[in-house]
């Protein structure tokens, strides 16, 4: 068995961090040298932003190998971890948005700006969470910004909140209650709507008395 790798699993570009393993006789390797390299002593050098899996491998006298792996983050990173499209969603007012989450590395916090009233953003345990019930309608372009660590990362998205649907008579007063003769045209009846995209059912039932 190989002991767990110890040391700080994050580093800035152009800097180093020391990893260690108490199991003797092993060798170090990086699966992503363009992001981070490691020498024979376990010294990791940050090259560019991203993550790299650092592995310590020990081969026993029988040729069997065992290893331990530690992911090292170079500079701050932030990735959407909720479903694709949740960062650009449309909801109705007074309804809960689909929760939006981002995974961060290297950062010690994050701020979220531009959210509608009733929706909040928070950072904890390397996760940004945006959730809540919007009490304001409109188009809200939000920005998530990491804080602390080596660098600043930002992510943006849009939450569109539609107002409550309304319908109101827009033709002349009384046109919604009229008495035409048979085979005669009625006075046009019109309604104005907000929020709706189509007419799905008869929303207003009016009496039309037709006389012969």
Question: Segments where pLDDT lies below 50 for 5+ residues?
Answer: 203-208
Helix and strand sequence: EEEEEEEEEEEEEEEEEE
The largest beta-sheet arranges its strands as: 1-3-6-5
Strand segment count: 18
**Percent strand:** over 45%
CATH class of the largest domain: Mainly Beta
Helix content: under 10%
Contiguous helical run count: 0
The first-to-last residue Cα distance is: 98 Å
Oligomer state equals single chain
Largest sheet: 4 strands, antiparallel
CATH architecture of the largest domain: Sandwich
> Which of globular, elongated, flat, extended, rod-shaped describes the shape?
rod-shaped
Roughly how many Å is the radius of gyration? 31 Å
The CATH topology assignment of the largest domain is Immunoglobulin-like
Number of domains: 3
Average pLDDT, rounded to a whole number, is 91
Structural class: mainly beta
Main features:
about 210 residues, mainly beta, Immunoglobulin-like, 3 domains, 4-stranded antiparallel β-sheet, 4-stranded mixed β-sheet, 18 strands, about 45% strand, rod-shaped
What does this structure look like?
The chain is an all-beta fold. The chain has 3 domains: 6-74, Immunoglobulin-like (Sandwich), CATH 2.60.40.1080; 77-162, Immunoglobulin-like; 165-212, no CATH class. The chain is 0% helix and 47% strand. It has no helices and 18 strands. The strands form 5 sheets. A 4-stranded antiparallel β-sheet has the order 1-3-6-5, with no helix packed on it. A 4-stranded mixed β-sheet has the order 2-8-7-4, with no helix packed on it. A hairpin with a 5-residue loop joins strand 7 and strand 8. The chain is rod-shaped. Mean pLDDT is 91; it is low at 203-208.
């Amino acid at each position: 068995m190989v002991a767990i790798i110890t040391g700080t699993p994050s580093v800035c570009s152009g800097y180093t961090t020391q990893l260690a393993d108490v199991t003797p006789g092993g060798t170090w390797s990086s699966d992503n040298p363009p992001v981070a390299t490691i020498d024979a002593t376990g010294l990791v050098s940050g090259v560019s932003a991203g993550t790299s899996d650092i592995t310590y491998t020990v081969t026993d006298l029988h040729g069997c190998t065992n290893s331990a792996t530690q992911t090292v983050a170079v500079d701050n990173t932030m990735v959407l971890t909720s479903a694709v499209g949740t960062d650009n969603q449309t909801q109705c007012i007074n309804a809960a948005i689909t929760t939006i989450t981002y995974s961060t590395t290297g950062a010690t916090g994050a701020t979220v700006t531009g959210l509608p009233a009733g929706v909040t953003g928070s950072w904890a345990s390397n996760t940004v969470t945006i959730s809540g019930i919007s009490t304001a309608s409109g188009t809200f372009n939000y920005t998530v910004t990491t804080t602390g660590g080596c660098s600043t990362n930002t992510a943006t998205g849009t939450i569109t909140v539609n107002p409550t649907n309304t319908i109101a008579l827009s033709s002349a007063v009384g046109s919604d209650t009229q008495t035409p003769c048979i085979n005669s045209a009625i006075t046009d009846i019109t309604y104005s709507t907000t929020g709706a995209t189509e007419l799905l059912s008869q929303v207003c039932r009016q009496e039309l008395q037709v006389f012969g």
